Amino acid sequence: MRPPRVLTIAGSDSGGGAGIQADLKAMLANGVHGMSVLTAITAQNSLGVQGAWELPAEQVRAQFRSVVDDIGVDAVKTGMLASESMVRVVAELLRTLPDGVPVVVDPVSVSKHGDPLLAADAMEAVRSDIVPLATVLTPNLTELGPVSGVEQRTVEDRELAAKELLHAGAAWVLVKGGHDEGDTSVDVLHGPGVRRAYSAARADNRHTHGTGCTLASTIASYVARGYDVPAAVGAAKEYVTGAIEAGFALGDGIGPVDHAW
Ligand code: PLP
C-alpha cells in the first residue's frame, strides 16, 4: 500500500546529521515516503558549517512543482530558508498547496555551533509570510523571541510569544524547551483552547545534531498519517528522545541523533 507522502523544503547538511538528510531519515523511520525541495546546500560536518549557498529561486520552484503536481503531498515540513527572498519564494509556493495540506514550520535561524542558517533580516519575513501558513510552528527558545517579536526576558514571556504567534495565524505553536537547563526537557504545545506540556528525561548525550529537523519532520510524518496535532507531537517527542539517547560520535565535534534506534 502507498505510504503517506511528506515533503521537506530545507537545506542540505553534507555531514548527514541535520537538514534534509535528517528529515528523510526521520520520515523513513516513521512510516512515510519522504521527498525534498532543497533551498540551500551547506558544507558541514561535526565541527560546524564551513559554507552555505542558497539555490536560485527558479530551481526551488521547479523542484516543488515536480513533486506537488505529479506525486502529491500529505504534509509539508520547512526548515532552513536561508534568506528573506527565499522565505518569500517558499511562502508563495506554500500558498499553492491544495487546501488542507498541513505545514510544519521549523523557524531555523542558527546551528548548534552558532552558524547562521537564516539571514539576520529574514525572520521578520518568516513572521509575516510563513507563520500565517503554519499548521504547527516549532520554535526553540533561541528562535521564539525573533519569530514572535516578543522579547524573551522571563518564562512568562514564552506564553505571550506563543499567543502572539497564534494571533499571527499559526494554528499550533510548539515551544521547545530543549535549550533550558534541568533534568527534564519540556516542550509546550499551544493551540485552539489547548495548552499541553510534553516532558522527557534529558539525555546525557552531547551528540544532538539534527534534533530540531528530526522533531519537525516526525510531527509532519504523523500528521500525514492522520494523527491530530497533539498526538503527532507526542509521538514525535518520544521518537526524538530515543534518537537523542542513541546519538553517536562522528568526527571531532557534535555527532548526530540516531534514526535507527
Ligand atoms: N544544517 C541545516 C541544513 C539545518 O537545516 C539545520 C537545522 O535545521 C542545522 C544544520 C542545524 O542543526 P543543529 O542545530 O541540530 O546542529
Automatic annotation (TrEMBL):
It comes from the Bacteria. SUPFAM superfamilies: Ribokinase-like. It catalyses: 4-amino-5-hydroxymethyl-2-methylpyrimidine + ATP = 4-amino-2-methyl-5-(phosphooxymethyl)pyrimidine + ADP + H(+); 4-amino-2-methyl-5-(phosphooxymethyl)pyrimidine + ATP = 4-amino-2-methyl-5-(diphosphooxymethyl)pyrimidine + ADP. Keywords: ATP-binding, Kinase, Nucleotide-binding, Thiamine biosynthesis, Transferase. InterPro entries: HMP/HMP-P_kinase_dom (IPR004399), PM/HMP-P_kinase-1 (IPR013749), Ribokinase-like (IPR029056). GO terms for cellular component: cytosol. Gene3D superfamilies: 3.40.1190.20. GO terms for biological process: thiamine biosynthetic process; thiamine diphosphate biosynthetic process. Pathway: Cofactor biosynthesis; thiamine diphosphate biosynthesis; 4-amino-2-methyl-5-diphosphomethylpyrimidine from 5-amino-1-(5-phospho-D-ribosyl)imidazole: step 3/3. One of its GO terms (molecular function) is hydroxymethylpyrimidine kinase activity. Residues 13-258 form the Pyridoxamine kinase/Phosphomethylpyrimidine kinase domain. The keyword Transferase applies. It holds the Pfam family Phos_pyr_kin. Catalyzes the phosphorylation of hydroxymethylpyrimidine phosphate (HMP-P) to HMP-PP, and of HMP to HMP-P. NCBIfam families: HMP-P_kinase. This is Hydroxymethylpyrimidine/phosphomethylpyrimidine kinase. It comes from Kribbella jejuensis.
